[in-house]
Amino acid sequence: MNMRRFSTGFALAGVFFSAGCGGERDDAALPPEVPSGDVWTLPDANRLAGLPGIVYASQENSRIHWQPWTKASLEMAANSRRLILAVIALPQQPSFADILEELSSDPATVALMNDIYVPVLIDGDAVREIGILTADLCAEIGSGLQLPLMVWMTPEANPVAWMPLPSSDAGSAASLLSQSHMMVTRTWDDDPGYVTRNSRLDQANRSQRLMERIRNRETSDDPAADALRALRQLTSLYDPLSRSFDEAGGLFPSGALDLLAMGAGMENLPEDLRRRCRAVLENLLDDLVVSPMFDPLDGGVFNARRGISWSFPGFYRDCASQARAAVSLFNAYEASGERRALERALGVLAFVETNYRTNEGLYTLGSGISGNIGKWLWWIEDLTELLTEEELAVWVPASGMSESGNLPSEVDPLRKYFRGNAIALAKSAGEIAAERGLDPTVVQRNLDSAREKLRGARDLRMQVSPGGGEANAVATFRMVSAYATAYRITGDTAYRDLASEILGKAKTRFSEGPLLKNYAGNEDASLTAGRAFLYSVAIQAALDVEAVTLDGIWLMWAGDLASTVSEVFAASGHISECPAAADLVGLPITDVAMLFDESTVGLLSMSESRLAALDIPLVPSLQTKLNALPMAAIGSPILHTDLIQAALMRAFGVTYVFGNDAPAAMREVLARSPLKGVNRREVKPTDPVVRSPKPGEVLRITPGGVVSPVKGVGEIKVPSLP
Predict the structure, then answer these.
(1) What is the DSSP letter of 517?
(2) How far apart (Å, rounded) are the C-alpha atoms in residues 189 and 81?
């Protein structure tokens, strides 16, 4: 997951107990779920060894007796009459390891957590419903979302109090815990029955609020018109004079790039809106492709920025976000013709293949890199010690470095990193050669040698987090879509073959009957069972491979996965993020906004549109949920670019129907058409005559149901491939 907003403040919150709850413990008043008597079944060891994912692997040798997020850990807390002290972390933010290391390196903190609580560590990406819940908990205390989040819980998994843990440069997590735990534990020691009842009531109220939010969500009566309004609103957020993108949030703007590219290329949209989308897309790319969001040393892209400027990245990455960024850059290249977007997309793919691919050809989420910001920045003095004069002369302009530093004052107001530089792909070898009258070949050679020296020097600075080598389902399915898109844009069949091969391996590795798992293995369902988000990216990957191969193999699996979603995640009247077998909190948590990544509902909505066009309709109840466009999308399009895309696809997309005798050239053009908004399927024996193409032809079906024959490649109206 990726966070949309970051907060630097922190506060203890949750239940603040009344002053009248002191006195002797009344065991007779305890609810049945809190055992009477002293049953001291204590966590006497760290039990994270062997669990999948870098969050657990990074702490398996910690002196804190971390327990996993399982029913057994809840029972341990109940039997020992202890509160749970849970820490929720995201693997995509490797700084979590530094904060947890601070806790485990302080003897007093270790003793406090081991002797007073049942410490539980939660991977907020794999246990996605808890990751989503952190946003609501932070909102309840008036705080922006900040992780890791420490949560005191009863043995029933009901939150009692919570606080974000500060980063190492914002304060001491150990000190904050020491100050905060006394109030909670004192009240628990005095009257655990009161704490249990009160937190249970709070959780019931929280559940009611979440359900009311789901039921009362205002949706559009005219999704087509309102999707156009939302798209116009998105284009209005960009100011070409100040080069600012209001309300874009802190993440790399993959969703905005995708939506703008769709708006620029979708043939049935109003022409003025298409021109506006392309203009904004071109401006946004001009800002992004030369910014330090792209690492000139290894080709990867950073997940987020610090502050409002793309000039100061948050220095962390993961495979799934890299794959999604690559797809958006490929799409942006197609719509704009901006060659640098294509170069960045290919660079990101190369970075992923080098850093995240496993021996069996699947993909890890990522190992993460810890280290303070200063280790990522460069000073001119650093370069003079490492580079020759010839290398230095071309590297400084190529990377956008400056003697005085290139960090804007608004992102480093205290000048903590005075004269520091965040390096970028600011200028090409050709641009530098033209400016200085040099031989481009010599310039490129000096840039390449400088890059290798600096990459080696930076690797020595960094401390790589341990573990995280096992294949991750979300990362793997994201890469399937990235390879399918790479084939579509470049025409290189090796990418198409990789997409098919990896999808086949992923289906085998992460399937357990009709169900999916985030990691292979036999761990508790609460740790590894596939959440609805995993199904949404898997369906998308299957449809993407089907679209570029046109061979019919993967369409059935996409439909089967959609049926599983209907049965497992939508039976309760809303789309639950967590399957019942893995749910330990019992809250109606549904993912409808792009807080961390594309939302579950948004991805499923886009897939529903594609499946319907391919004559695989979902059950009516699920269709109704997925066809809805929230009115909030108009005012906050950045948070709903996925749902806006789905509405546009549904209202303005076209479908091509072909026979098995369709010419190879026509099949290739169809395979390389946009994955979203241009559907293609083979004719079925049950299709009516009016929708069955003649030999050698293809039929085109408009959103209004008009059917027309396509007799030549030039008649297929798709965006031109630059």
Answers:
(1) B
(2) 9
Give the model's pLDDT for residue 6.
Answer: 30
Q: What is the DSSP string of 314-365?
A: E----HHHHHHHHHHHHHHHHHH--HHHHHHHHHHHHHHHHHTB-TTS-B-S
H and E: helices and strands count for the chain: 26, 17
User: How is the chain split into domains, by residue range?
Assistant: 13-215, 250-355, 373-461, 655-715
Give yes or no for a contact between 87 and 100, defined as CB atoms under 8 angstroms apart. Answer: yes
The tokens describing 701, both together, are 């079906």
627 Cβ neighbours under 8 A, 6+ residues apart: 223, 605, 608, 650
Q: pLDDT > 90: what percent of the chain?
A: 75
pLDDT digits (tens, 9 = 90+) for 498-553: 999 999 999 999 999 999 999 999 999 999 999 999 999 999 999 999 999 998 89
Contacts 24+ apart (CB under 8 A), 338-344: 338/282, 338/285, 338/286, 338/289, 339/722, 340/285, 340/289, 340/290, 340/425, 341/285, 341/289, 342/489, 344/289, 344/294, 344/301, 344/425
b/e map of 167-193 (b: 16 or more CB within 10 Å)? beeeebbbebbeebbeebbebbebbbb
The pTM assigned to this predicted structure is 0.93
Residue 688 to residue 680: CA distance in whole angstroms: 17
| Beta strand ranges found along 242-323 (DSSP E) | 244-245, 304-305, 313-314
Is the bond into 35 cis (omega within 30 degrees of 0)? Answer: no
Cβ–Cβ < 8 Å for 629, 647: yes
Fold topology of 13-215: Glutaredoxin (3.40.30)
* Dist CA 301 CA 586 (whole Å): 37
Q: d(Cα 223, Cα 484) in Å, to the nearest integer?
A: 29
Tokens at residue 234, please? 């998105």
Q: What average pLDDT score do residues 241-247 get?
A: 76
Q: How far is it, in rounded angstroms, from Cα 255 to Cα 646?
A: 12
- Cα(622)–Cα(567) distance, integer angstroms: 10
Phi-psi region at 719: left, alpha or beta (left = phi > 0; alpha = psi -120 to 50): beta
**pLDDT tens, position by position, 431-478:** 999 999 999 999 999 999 999 999 999 988 886 554 458 999 999 999
pLDDT at 209: 95
Residue type, 661: D
Q: Specify the DSSP class assigned to residue 67.
A: B
pLDDT band at 95 (very low <50, low <70, confident <90, very high): confident
- Percentage of the chain with pLDDT > 70? 91
Report the candidate in 435, 484, 416 with the shortest Cα–Cα distance to residue 673. 484
Which residue matches tokens 């009901």?
A: 158
Residues 6 or more apart in contact with residue 185 via CB below 8 angstroms: 83, 116
Mind listing the pLDDT tens digit for each residue in 111-127?
999 999 999 999 999 99
Residue 477: CA count within 13 A, CB half-sphere: 25
